[in-house]
Amino acid sequence: MKAICKHVLAAVLAVAGSQALAQEVQDSNWLVRARAVHIDPANESTPLAGVGAGDRIHVSTKTIPEVDVSYFFTPHLAAELILTYPQKHDVTLDGQRIGSFRHLPPTLTAQYHFAPQASVRPYVGAGVNYTRISRVKLLGGAATLEKDSWGLALQAGVDIKLDARWSVNVDVKKVKLRSDVLLGGAKASEVRVDPVLVGVGVGYRF
């Protein structure tokens, strides 16, 4: 009888321990994701010096690595900080390359997660993007860009749970990113990059 009681007690403790561990993982506040993100600019621009047609200046598409860190205030509400390193983009005018620039676009969003306990967990978010533009080389140095851009960021995505910690993530963002093109210190055009960013990656809850 004593042996049976010991086995029953051990089984109960094992179940309780596994449930506590699952609850601990489930209630964890931190989620880190790594994504591959494709940047697809809108490529809208005003006429150069106010003359002729618009949309002549284009910024190249690009696929970049990205890391984001999310903190969950509640199971439904989270904040996400999106990070990468400075990215180089080519710039063309009427299809001809005129130079390049680099940009660093950290983005902070507030998110609402619709089904935090489900295996498929959709969410939406909104926030702000700050882009730092550097190493501008346009028209052999004759033209430059504004150094800073602030804009709205909108987001929708889904986490698909693999186990207690790992998940697959698909994420789409629309970011307002604009800059004036300066020739001789005077504004010659406004470039509306306004990219759509489509990301696929993995997440780890800890």
Automatic annotation (TrEMBL):
InterPro entries: OMP/PagP_B-barrel, OMPW
Leader peptide range in chain numbering: 1-22
UniProt xrefs under Pfam families: OmpW (PF03922)
Keyword list, A-Z: Signal
Record's subcellular location: Cell outer membrane
Magnesium found in the keyword field: no
Principal subcellular localization: membrane
Protein name: Outer membrane beta-barrel protein
Source species of the chain: Massilia phyllostachyos
